[in-house]
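Re: your question from the hallway

Yes, I did run it. Sequences:
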Amino acid sequence: GAVVSQHPSWVICKSGTSVKIECRSLDFQATTMFWYRQFPKQSLMLMATSNEGSKATYEQGVEKDKFLINHASLTLSTLTVTSAHPEDSSFYICSAQAGTGGREAFFGQGTRLTVV
Amino acid sequence: GENVEQHPSTLSVQEGDSAVIKCTYSDSASNYFPWYKQELGKGPQLIIDIRSNVGEKKDQRIAVTLNKTAKHFSLHITETQPEDSAVYFCAASFDNYGQNFVFGPGTRLSVLP
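Structure:
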């Protein structure tokens, strides 16, 4: 299957600081990328959908000013958690969808964010 | 909106036995149903998927069946091995042009040696 690389795999930051997470599709062009959040022992919850070159679409209840998403190219999307707080600590996962009409989604390895 | 239920939440089987995980969905417009395996601390990995125009799909030890009328689909793993131990998520997609996956709550499978 296609490869999606997420970086960093884990990060610890202080309260009030911002953290950027990168999601790259390594061997295909991803017209659409998705960002999920997963709390321990829970399922994946979609945060936002981003299409290359346009603004991200956020799910209800997700603060767009807190979770900044940029999808500047067909192979890179970034999620920036601004002014992080301990309650933002979670496992963040991106996925990418290749091409038009394709519906297979490939996930990155996830980023564990801990805010102290 | 779409709602996906998944059962059981935990499943323990002896190595070599079969494992079956079942999911139901609510939106009859859903037309794509992937299954993901997630190991601890890692992202989900697509293991098999099925589209609504197919009733069954098999890939070596893994198979998925879909009953559109009843709106349920199942994952079947035969000859289970310890490395099959993981959390499995089913999902339903109801958007022909995007992802919009709704995930089930997950099943923690333990294969006992």
